[in-house]
Amino acid sequence: MSDVGDSLLRNQEHSETKSFIIGLERGKIWAEDYADYFTMREYSELDVDELLHISLPGDEERHFRILSTESPLELRAYIRGWIAGVKESIKRF
Asked: What's the domain count of the chain?
């Protein structure tokens, strides 16, 4: 995670903005380091409501649970940020 992400994780307050930014960073990391193009494209085309009915890919759900133990995160905001991070990364292709 970036310095901003690490700093936000130290904040113990509930915040949708914090959850969104951490999700954004995690989505970028997943898209750039773990996903193949087709899987990345598939997730970039989902909206938040669709993703709430299926699970995050691979170890991403576990990452969310681990990050949530370090700092309280809002799932919906985290997923919105995660999808935004994936969409941001796919623009580079």
From this structure: 1
